[in-house]
Amino acid sequence: MDLFLSILKALHIISIIAWMAGLLYLPRLFVYHSDVEPGSLQSETFKVMERRLFLRIMNPAMFFSILFGLALIIWSESLDWYSSWIWIKVFCVGILIMVHVQFGIWQKAFEIDSNVHSARTYRIANEIPTMLMIIIVLMVIIKPF
Predict the structure, then answer these.
(1) Count of domains observed in the chain
(2) How many whole angstroms separate alpha carbon 37 and alpha carbon 43?
(3) Distance from first CA to last CA of the chain, Å, rounded?
(4) Containing domain of residue 66, as a range?
């Protein structure tokens, strides 16, 4: 069982790394995309990059992060649901999922040349996954509550 849980943890971490890479990179693409003329060659290139990142990397990575996370919850015997850290982590993961969905909405808006936000909006949005990641890692490693 220890080997099984270790493999699950490794797969969970690998999935999270891929998901976080996308959550950190996609809004940077939006920053640059928002500064180019809709319909331009640059804009079309950004569309391809954003679509592939979101659909081929971020969506599967999020799915597997959640799947392996749930598997760890199911098979882990040492998880204490009376501790606050796990609820803070779950709450932050929920916000990360909402951020992911919002990034998907923005990606679709760029896809149809209907972006209404400035580069500043995407710069600010780029910080949200970082802050959530820090909180989640601190909760899981330190378990302060």
Answers:
(1) 1
(2) 7
(3) 27
(4) 2-142
37 to 48, 83, 109, 110, 115: CA distances (angstroms): 15, 51, 14, 11, 11
In this prediction, residue 77 carries a pLDDT of 82
Q: 107, 102, 129: which is closest to 54 by C-alpha?
A: 107
> Which residue reads 């909180």 in tokens?
135
Q: Is 27 helix (H, G, I), strand (E, B) or coil?
A: helix
- Dist. CA 39–CA 19, nearest whole Å: 29
Strand, helix or coil for residue 114:
coil
Q: Are 107 and 26 contacting, i.e. CB atoms less than 8 angstroms apart?
A: yes
Q: Find out whether 106 and 54 touch, Cβ atoms under 8 Å.
A: no
The pair of three-digit structure tokens given for residue 143, joined into one six-digit string: 């378990």
Residue 27's closest CA among 126, 132, 129, 144?
126
Model-level pTM? 0.93
User: In percent, how much of the chain has pLDDT > 90?
Assistant: 93
How far is residue 107's CA from residue 84's CA, in Å, rounded to a whole number? 35
CB distance 132 to 99 below 8 Å: yes
pLDDT of residue 76: 86
